[in-house]
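Tutorial handout. Part one gives the primary structure; part two gives the three-dimensional structure as tokens.
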Amino acid sequence: MTRSHLLLAATLLFALALLLHGPIPQWSSYHDFADRRTWFAVPNAADVLSNLPFLLIGAWAWAALRDVPWRLFALAIGATAFGSAGYHWAPDNASLVFDRLPIAAACALLVCLFLAERVDPRWARPAVLAGALVAAAASVLLWWASEEAGRGDLRAYLFVQFLPMVLVVAGLSMRLRPLSAHAVSDAAWWTTLALYAAAKALELADHAVLQASGVVSGHTLKHLLAAAAAAWLLRAAIRNGSPR
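Part two.
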């Protein structure tokens, strides 16, 4: 079995695990964030304004990169600022759709970027990228439709969101070598994964972090660490690639 087949097997096992698990509803307290403080008429100000780094990082990387797939990833990161800020301004399921769309797009593009650099450059072809973006959007819309039907199910969205972690960890563990000198290094991928995992942990500890610190919530820190993860990866892509 080739390493490409092993990555395919990891993907199928992840999908099968979600399928066998059954529907995963969004918990009822999902929109109940810890920090509800208003600042200069901005509601939930810390969670809203902590999205600004996504916009700055996306704009910086878009201007610095020449590679189209990486520029699309930078665009998705920048769009996350608008989707997430809008959601946290008035949290509900409708605004959450626009929060999750750019996140899903970024995750789908990340899968294509990693596979293009480590498995086959054809993963970066326009048709493949377009298909990945359609699948990402479909995962969010499937969740939204399930919520509207009263049987919320996050499985498709969770598959898209966590597939990059599954494949990158599997690929790096198998020591898949970069296909070109311009590929992102193993160290940059591992650092990105570590930062994103820490961000997700802080998201789950939203209330506990604010209670312990009295200053900042876990969700606000989640935004900052997730932005740092994107910045670290894009910095590596810019340094290893051919910037403008």
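Part three, for discussion. The chain has ten helices and no strands. Residues 50-240 form one domain.
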